[in-house]
UniProtKB/TrEMBL annotation:
<feature type="transmembrane region" description="Helical">
    <location>
        <begin position="45"/>
        <end position="62"/>
    </location>
</feature>
<dbReference type="Pfam" id="PF09838">
    <property type="entry name" value="DUF2065"/>
</dbReference>
<dbReference type="InterPro" id="IPR019201">
    <property type="entry name" value="DUF2065"/>
</dbReference>
<keyword id="KW-0472">Membrane</keyword>
<feature type="transmembrane region" description="Helical">
    <location>
        <begin position="6"/>
        <end position="24"/>
    </location>
</feature>
<keyword id="KW-1133">Transmembrane helix</keyword>
<protein>
    <submittedName>
        <fullName>DUF2065 domain-containing protein</fullName>
    </submittedName>
</protein>
<keyword id="KW-0812">Transmembrane</keyword>
Length: 64
């Protein structure tokens, strides 16, 4: 994976997140309120799971 591919991936994530805020502002506000009230351990586990899944998917896509 090159640096350009990594930047392109980050750009796609930013674009998708922006579209979610534009299309569903109230749902995003509710989601963020729920995240803010979640216990730190739960956020760590969820964050680690999403990170592992993201790396696995990116590796699969780059290596084919």
């Amino acid at each position: 994976m090159t640096g350009w591919q990594l930047l392109a991936g980050i750009a796609v994530v930013a674009a998708l997140e922006g579209l979610l805020y534009a299309a569903f502002p109230e749902a995003m506000r509710r989601t963020l309120t729920g995240i803010a009230s979640a216990p730190p351990q739960r956020l760590r586990i969820a964050g680690l799971g999403v990170a592992v899944l993201g790396v696995a998917v990116a590796t699969f896509l780059v290596r084919g």
